[in-house]
Structures are given as structure tokens and as C-alpha cells.
Model the fold of this input.
Amino acid sequence: MKLCFNQATTLENSNLIKDLEYCEKHGYDFIEIRSMDKLPEYLEEHSIEELVTYFQTHHIKPLALNALVFFNNRDEEGYKEIISQFAEMLELGKKIGIKYIVAVPLVTEEKILKEDIKTSCLEVLTELSSLAEPYGIKIALEFVGHPKCTVNTFAQAYEIVEAVNRDNVGLVLDCFHFHAMGSNIEDLKKADSSKIFILHIDDTEDFPIGFLTDEDRLWPGQGAIDLDGILSTLKEIGFSDVVSIELFRPEYYQLEAEETIKKAKETTLNVVSKYFEIGSVGISR
Done:
């Protein structure tokens, strides 16, 4: 399994240049680039060609652009905005060589029937799949473990991906989101591992289902998530691609960026290496 760094982990104490420097130094294989803030910030003073050259001349490679946000159940204007944004991400992604674009479902106060959520997700993901196919880029749907997210459990997200039935549409399995809305490990045991594109590793304080927020995340192995259960199940069903650490902990933003990146790797390896040999099996590129 290959090791990846998600830039949310240093959201407030670093930038893309520093993240790349420290991730390269500490032996990460991949990086998930935040397309909402850290990439635009980088492009204010640097060109996309500079970024391409960096990846061509260093070990670390780009895994994903994170993220296309709130893609489903939008009005006409919002839908057109999503398609336009996705087209731009495809062009950027092709240049720098990403494998995935992460797609995040709508979070809303509005109560929407699950049938209507599924219908919208199917329609939009199918269109995105067709747009992405010529680029060789895949779409990774990330369910969010929060009551106000329209897709908030593994089972719901997996059902949508199965219904789309496209090779370039799969899932992000984030351990925090899996835990936060009580996703069932039995559903994971029945899953086709080829439908899981990215594993996000993290942990959390022990709050009740429905009360957890991203700020409650902890270093892997230091919280209440049954990481052993999730990782052992992933091994059983044949997943061995990439693990990406993603934390939003405010206290961790007070650390030096290099310390955060080093600690993130150490805690991830402590948990994951019980089930997977890190670096022995990589994703196909």
C-alpha cells in the first residue's frame, strides 16, 4: 500500500510548496491537492508548468484534486457551475497527472428524500464519468458522516456507485466519516474492493453518532474509531491501494508543518502496518 498526504492536515499552517517539500523529505508517495485553496494560492505566484516539473523530478506524485464540492441536488445555475468547475479540474488534472477527482455530496438544511438524492447523484456522476473518461481520470465519491450531508453512510454511497456502474466512478472511504454516522462494517465486508479508490485514515474523540465534526479528528490510533476492524476488513476484501491521512484538528495547525507531516506518517504507519506493508504494493498509474 502506498502512503499519501491530504493537505487538510496542514490547512492553516502550510502551503503547497512546503507540503511537497516535507512530504518528499519524509517519504510520502502521493499528495491530495486541495483545489479549493492551496492550489489557487500556489498559482498566484507559480505556474502549473512549475508544478508539473516538480512532480516529474521528485518521488512524490499527485493522487487527487480535492474536491468538487456539493455536486448533487443543485438548481440549474448550481448544476452548470459544477460542470464548469469539473471541466477546469479535468484540464488541470491532466496536466499534473492526477488519478482522481474527489466529489463531495451536498450538505444542506433542506430535507431531501433519499430517492431524490440517489436520482440526482446518478445523473450527475454519470455525466461527470463521461466527461472524465477521455482524460483517464476517475471520480471518487466521498460520503460525509454528518446528519446534514445528503450522502452520509458507506452503504448509501456504495449503492449509488453500484448504480452508476462505471469503472471510473468509485468511493473514498474515510474512517472518520464511516464512524461518524455509524456505517456498518458488514456493508464493507460485502463490498467490491475495486469500487474503493482512496482510504482516508484518521481517528476521533468519542462523541455520539451525529455529533462529530471534522475538528474532532485525532492522529490515527489515538481515538474511538475501530481502525482495526476497518483495516482488517479492507485486507480481507482485497483493498491494498493507497492510504491518505486527512485531519482537520485545530491544535495540529498550531504545530510546525514539518512536525505535523512527520507525526502524521508515524501514527499512520503504527496503525496501518499491522495489516499492510506500506510501499510494497502501489496503485496502477
